[in-house]
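Notes from the 1:1 (GR / supervisor)

We went over the backlog. Supervisor wanted to see one worked example end to end before approving the batch request, so GR pasted a single chain during the call. The sequence is below; no edits were made to it. Supervisor asked that the structure be written out right there so they could see what the output format looks like.
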Amino acid sequence: MSVYLDRGVVLFSDVDEKRTNATSSDLSGYQLVEVGDFVLNNQQAWRGSVGVSFYRGIVSPAYLVLRLSDELHPNFANYMFRNRDMVGHFVICSKGVGTIQRNLYWPQVKRMPVVYPDLPEQKAISNLLDQKTTQIDKTIRVKEQQITLLKERKQILIQNAVTRGLNPETPMRDSKFEWIGEIPAHWDVMANRALFAERVEPGREGLPLLSVSIHSGVSEEEVSEEENVRGRVKIADKTKYNLVRPGDIAFNMMRAWQGAIGEVRTEGMISPAYTIAMPSQKIVPKFFEYQYRTPIFIQQMDRNSKGITDFRKRLYWDGFKQLITLVPPIEEQGAIVEYIDREVAKQDRAVSLLDQQITKLKEYKATMINSAVTGKIKVPGVVEPVQGMNEPEAREVCQ
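Structure output shown during the call:
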């Protein structure tokens, strides 16, 4: 089992995303967790990685596993210990420097003040929260599904536009490539060697250092200091960078197979680990950015990349120049880009609105939980007023 910020204690089998930490083959050092135990990731508790377990299983030896007092209802305790006020206590009591190495230990945990009502009230509060949070979570899931659907439609729209054009009545022909299928009869199919030449020019002082993202292509501004913290170290000698000019296509050799490619929109410099393709004929560069970032063309870049494993794959210039590209007349390239820009803007606005709604729902949920477990709202079924709460010693809560 593991402890997640937004889910508490979960089974590994219930985690959808890819895990980056492997479980040791020797389980003798792992800790047994019983149903109702309170589990803390002592390195991430200050962020909210805590929860009461509703499963019997094992967790990392690095976690804290505590037995709850009989005075606490497990479901109520799960809400209480994960609410933002309690997480604030975890922040204060954690030891370490900065926000990366901050550990929470038992001597600090056992001294934390914990305020809670009697058991009947705890049960009433947790029942109410179960009901309300289930409704909120269901609404959030619906909106997340809507976002997924919008993003899928966006990708289909782009791929259809850059491989089939905008006119459904256009005569089609076989592209001769099974993975592409039919294309407009008047479009050309070219290898990139006929479209681009490699640009190899040194950078110079005064130009912004740009990045290439799998999410948004080539940046238009200087790489931020926050991004530099992620392993990017600026080189004093600017000639070690590569110069890029507007209209170029730049790609990250190590992540092209994931879609890290795009049009350059401003003169600047990029990492020597990136490659620059300079158009050798008149084109609309953004059309090719859209094309190269579709799934079928990303898969083509993957096939042309060299490396034993995903993390070692590289798309070198020799591989890029062999890529097959669809080339409509330049006027049609521009019309397709205008259409995609317009439709994508609509999709992005809809996604942004749904994201805002999800954020507000999550904020409302957190506020409701905090208010309920701290006695700030009236709970149906509670006879005694919430103000009459106990405040026992922490040692009576966890062992």
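Supervisor's comment: Residues 204 and 237 are 8 Å apart (CA to CA).
Batch request approved.
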